[in-house]
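Most newcomers find our protein records easier to grasp once they have seen one. Nothing more is needed to start thinking about how sequence determines fold. Here is such a record, shown just as it appears in the course material:
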Amino acid sequence: MRKRLTVIGRMTLLGAVLGAVLATAAPASAQPEVTGVFGGLLGGDLDNLLAGTSSIKTAFDNGPLYGVRVGWIGGFVGAEGSFVYSPSGVKISAPNRPIDLDGRVHYTELNFLLIPIPGPISPFFTIGAGWHSYTLDLNLANVSLDELKIEKFGWNFGGGIKINIKALTLRGEVRDHLTKIGPDDFDVSEIADELGFDNDTTLHNVEISGGIGVRF
């Protein structure tokens, strides 16, 4: 019950922050914009992937990504809320260990946009935070557990480019979603031990996406 109240409190605070950001970033000339998002999610820790040292806790599978973003753009700044989903963004298969894990990822986030060159072709930078949800289907030889849900507050940053054609917007971007996960996030201690989560670790899931938006 206490955990549920904590989640509700954080979501309420997140909504208040969105209202404040939109009030600041949406002057009279700002335009509402709705964008459909599609792309891919590169699972795992980006540094480990580049170095070729992925471990069991970072060997996450790549997966498709879908979602929607709703925002307000005005001149050099903007604000938006987004919901993106990957049906197979987490998958761990460990040889020599009795582990089989598959899962789904949801990111519900609020972001601030900085647009240094407003115009028909507009590069942008973005940073934000929100609620990261991992639903994991887990099978262990020593632990009987069909599904495990981890919900954490996380953040993201990235950048991209927007091409404005009358009321339409074409968009491409890269974002890194960061979530800190540790042994306390698992209901059974043996699960954290089997997955290699001895200490808190920050997961990096990199989104590479495009989108088609409509301005009103």
Remarks:
- The mean pLDDT is 77.
- The two ends are 42 Å apart (CA to CA).
